[in-house]
Specification:
The protein is an all-alpha fold. The chain contains two helices and no strands. The chain has helices at 2-31, 34-50.
C-alpha cells in the first residue's frame, strides 16, 4: 500500500511542477521579473503536486 501511495504522490508532482513553472514563467514575463516568477512557479508547482485531489482518500481503505 505504501508503495502505491508513493507512486501516486510522484505522479501528481510530475504533473504539478511543470504546470507551476509555466504559470510562474508567465507571471515573471508579465511583471518583467523572470527570476521571481520562476521561484513562485516552483512554489506553485509543489502546491499543485501536494494538494489532495479528493476528499479523504484514506477513508476508502
Amino acid at each position: 500500500m505504501d508503495e502505491n501511495k508513493n507512486q501516486e504522490e510522484s505522479n501528481s508532482l510530475s504533473i504539478g511542477l511543470p504546470l507551476g513553472l509555466c504559470l510562474g514563467t508567465a507571471i515573471g514575463v508579465a511583471t518583467d521579473n523572470l527570476a521571481l516568477g520562476i521561484s513562485l512557479g516552483l512554489c506553485f508547482g509543489l502546491l499543485f503536486g501536494l494538494f489532495p485531489k479528493g476528499k479523504n482518500k484514506d477513508k476508502e481503505e
